[in-house]
Amino acid sequence: MRGQDKRGKFPAAYSSIDTATHIGIFAEAPARLRAVLAGLTQADFRAKPRPEKWSIQEISFHVVDSEVMGAGRIRQVFAEPGAVFARYDQDAWATAIKYQELDTTSLSHWLGLFASLRATASVIFRTATTEIWAHWGTHGEWGPLTLRQLLELYADHGERHIGQIVELRNSIGEANSFPAPSGDKAILGQRIHGCEVTSTGRTSSALMDQNQWLCFRQDPVVGTACSRRGARGPEHVSGRTSEAPPRGQSGKTQS
Fold first, then answer.
1. Any idea where the domains of the chain sit in the sequence?
2. Cβ-contact 244, 236 below 8 angstroms
3. Which of 4, 45, 100, 181 is the most exposed place for a label (fewest CB within 10 A)?
4. Residue range 93-101: mean pLDDT, rounded
């Protein structure tokens, strides 16, 4: 089943955040993902405190496979404006590739691929001119998306899943000291994607698009999920598609 049609409704939540900050967060995600996975055993990776939701292991493999699709889309928009993006079913990939059964060597290969894909895409982003940032391609749920919106989509995607892993670690009693953002990267709502933190420390609903965003407040950890759990980000709209977020807070999201 495909996600609902969201054409023309891509959230403007990040439009006021400068491109350089977005690229920095996008580029840092592989190191942040490795950091949030540090110290986990195989049993931890595969634990399912909520059986119907993805494990840390499944989320980790999904993040990388989603990036494979994203890497192609970024290049298409950059070089072939007007391209139509391929769609994919995230659940079908998880089942067919058997994410839950793969070993730690496989995960290491996937994480290495994630780092390479983000590094090369960052090079592409940094060479984009004003004209190229306005290039667009057609997404299955969102309709036309510009190169800038793809940057927002994937920067959000990595951060959202890192936040889900933080929560899963906490739920299985394996919380760790996750590194806080530093320098210019702290500007992005203290690493909040999809919501903003007010001076009182409370999350504001001003940027929430009808509860669509799953956002995370960053303390010493990226952690403490906002009250709007189970929301979806722009990268995951259906539960099955090419690049949309998950159903529920599970960790299933598509980008």
1. 19-250
2. yes
3. 4
4. 97
Measured between alpha carbons, how far is residue 145 from residues 156, 193, 213 in Å?
15, 18, 18
10 Å Cβ neighbour count for 101?
A: 9
> Cα dist. 174→29, 38, 144, 159 in Å?
21, 10, 41, 19
* CB atoms closer than 10 angstroms to residue 97: 15
- Report the b/e string of 180-193 with b at 16+ CB within 10 A: ebeeebeebbbbbb
State the pTM of this model. Answer: 0.74
Say what the alpha-carbon torsion angle 53, 95, 222, 175 is, to the nearest 10 degrees. 70
What homologous superfamily is domain 19-250 in, according to CATH?
A: dinb family like domain (1.20.120.450)
Contact indicator for 74, 155 with CB cutoff of 8 Å: no
**Cβ atoms of 244 and 232 closer than 8 Å:** yes
Token pair of 225 as six digits: 């999920």
Encoded amino acid at 235, one letter: E
Local structure of 148: helix, strand or coil: helix
Q: Quick check: 153 and 141 in contact, CB under 8 A?
A: no
Going from the C-alpha of 164 to that of each of 46, 86, 132, 142, 251, the distances in angstroms are 14, 26, 33, 23, 6
Split at pLDDT 50, 70, 90, the class of 218 is very low
The predicted-structure confidence for 69-86, as pLDDT tens digits, reads as follows 999 999 999 999 999 999
Q: Of residues 90 and 176, which shows the higher confidence score?
A: 90
Q: What pLDDT is recorded for position 134?
A: 97
